[in-house]
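Exam revision sheet. Question 4 asks you to relate a sequence to its structure. Input first:
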Amino acid sequence: MLAMTLGYNKGYSEDAPDKEALEHQAGYTLVEFGAPWCAHCQTAMPVVECFMKAYPAMPHVKVFDGKGKRLGRQFGVKLWPSLILLKDGHEIGRWVRVTHLEDLNQAKAMLDSGG
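Answer key, structure tokens:
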């Protein structure tokens, strides 16, 4: 499975883009770090899926993170799942261990305002 898809991405991929590729990505991109066996990640899955339904044209990069995984370290990820919203390759927001759609209200406001 590819790490980056438009709209919701169901599965974590070990085939992650490098940080430089993400920095050159135009527009908004949601990068999600986690692991398929992570209970917090499993709890967040339906929340992220519901959130992404509102933004079907936005890339969702779902990265299988863990020991020795470079991209997660480059982004300073310490807990899973970590959701990082990029705009034109720059981080504009970060949410960790979301459990409810309301946890992503700030992300929604940023996307809806263009901001």
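Marking note for examiners. The two ends are 30 Å apart (CA to CA).
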